[in-house]
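fyi for ur records
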Amino acid sequence: MTRRSTVLLRVAGCAVLLVAAGACQAAPGVARGKALFDTCAPCHGDDGAGDETLGAPAIAGATDWYLTSQLNRFRDRTRGYHYQDAEGLRMGPMTRAFKEVEDLSLIVDYVVSLPIVDPPATLDGDIEAGEAEYEALCSNCHGIDGRGVDAATPELNAPSLLHLNDWYIQSALRKYRDGVRGALPGDNAGAIMRNPVLGMSDERIANVTAYVMTLQRLPRRIPGPPPEPLPPLEVDPSILPEGVTVAMAQEGQDLFHGAGLCASCHLRQGVGGGLAPDLTDAVWLHIDGNYEAIVDVIMDGVPVPIEAPGPMPERGGSTITDEQVLAVAAYVYILSR
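which gave:
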């Protein structure tokens, strides 16, 4: 029997045992999490360092909120839904084998207690070119040093990229690009990730991956700080189109930087960057800049952008309502006025 067959049999056997025995009777807290982690160790390793042959990444070093979110996404099939995502398809049944959701949190507690591993770089790429790509496309969310952000708005949380295997980073970016991951309707986090990599070649992905592996490896899980609070929005009512109010623009500012996901590409206060154009000047690339046109472009998206590296999805990839779109459009309207 091959090693892979032995591992898969062990995983399947553990899953059945967990279901039958109430996820193994063990001591509470981290000790129980350690016992439950026996289900994960055949793929991710006893030390959480991962196994490339099984497509299981290093998880020792991930933050608790990210581990929790991904386990829940596997559990509800938001992740691991595509027939080409063999690793994701394997994770789904594993998470659903636990009858108590609390068991997943205990596993997370145990994984966070593990010593952090720093997998070595194993892939080649143009680090200098990758740095330019990273700063333009990735740093706004994951931070200039790759530490990620624990944001006040959960939709804008971004995990750390440190302590990951390069083969996993490369695989994840390809999956996002190809719709194997992050393409389900309503998956806001997936939409944010897909936008920068749509149309990205394997070579460019390799370059970004190579650069990420050069980032400083921090000794503990230390996320980057959340952004500073936005200044109060000052609006001259006389410039607003008929039917648009100051209150709408103020709500739009909050949505632009939160649930609307706009700032993830257009950056704070719409100044633009490598992913999307500046909204604070008088230059409009796809429309004439009137309020109705702004509403339409938010609603419909921009399938073929003139300058941006990837398309803008409908509603920016978010699930904001029609009324909220009107508010975001009000905020965007005043940015250049």
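The chain has three domains: 3-113, 127-212, 237-335. thats all i got for now
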